[in-house]
Amino acid sequence: QVQLVESGGGLVQPGGSLRLSCAASGFTFSSYFMNWYRQAPGKEREFVAAVSSAGSGTNYADSVKGRFTISRANAMNTVYLQMNSLKPEDTAVYYCNLRFRTYEWWGQGTQVTVSS
Questions:
Q1: pLDDT for the residue numbered 62
Q2: 64, CA 20 to 30 Å: which among 24, 93, 96, 112?
Q3: List of the chain residues with pLDDT < 70
């Protein structure tokens, strides 16, 4: 079965950096786009970034462009989200996502808190 396990969250000061990881299993990882979403308290879950199956194509929400970088290591079945210049408004639970036709899977999420 599909499993997505996020890690790397934590507390960081404004302007700091974090790298999130999502370890995937149960499917042919290298064949699928992968996504990151986030959900802040009291808000709906929102798209953050996506990466193509080979890693050559990426897409970002306007709010994170130029600060976040999504990448993947297909040999390790892992997708990453490098987050730089973090702002308090980036505080949220970050989720790894796989979508295929009408199906989608989510990880359990990892908390990112940006605060001084």
A1: 98
A2: 24
A3: none
